[in-house]
Design goal:
three-stranded antiparallel β-sheet
Length: 212
Amino acid sequence: MPPDSYFDTASERQPLFWACAVRVQLGRWEPLVAKHALQTLAPNLRPPPDPPIVMAEHEYWDGERERHLLLIAARNLLLSLGLLDNPPVVDSNMRSELIEARDLNEHWLENMGIFNVHPRPREPKYRSGKEFAERNPRSGPYCWWAWSLNQGPLVTPNVPAATVHNLCDQVIDAVISDDSAIAGYVPRTYPSPWHPRANSSDPWWPNAGFFR
C-alpha cells in the first residue's frame, strides 16, 4: 500500500523518529543483557567481580519489557524506511526475523506455549511462527538476554544489536545530512556496557565497571 500523500512533505520525520526510538530502547536493554552475562559468567572469572554482579528480580522483567518495546520500534523503523528516497539496504533475514519476533511477542498468548517448551509440542499455526521456527529450530523468540562472545547482544537469534545500531546510524545520518535543523531531536548515544573493541574481530565482553 503506497503511503498517504501526507508524507509527501513529511517523509523523513517518521524514519528519524523510529530510528531514535530504537536507539533509546537499545540503550535501555543492552545494560540488562550485559549484567545478565556478567552474573552468568561470574563463577568462571578469575578474579570474580568485586562486588558481585547480581541482578534484582525486577530486572528480569525489565529486560523482557525493554526488548519487547525494542522489537515494536524496530518493526516501525522497517516500515518507515519506504518513506526515504534512498533507504538503507536491510538484509532480508534481518528484516524477516525482526518482524517475526515482533509478531510472536505481540501474539504471546498463541505462541509462548509452543516456543517456550522443549521439544516443541506442536508446530506454530501462523506464518510468522512457521518461518521463525524453520530458521531457528532450537531457539525461541522470547529470550531477552541472548548474548554471544563473537556477536554481542542478540536482539533475535540471528540479528545482533550491532547491526540494528548500524541501521539506526545510517537513517539518522541520512536525514540530518538533508536537514541539519532536525538534529536537535536526536537523543544522545547511550554509554556502552561493553568493553571497548579495537576492531570487529574483538570479542564482546561485558564491562563490570559499568555497574559500579
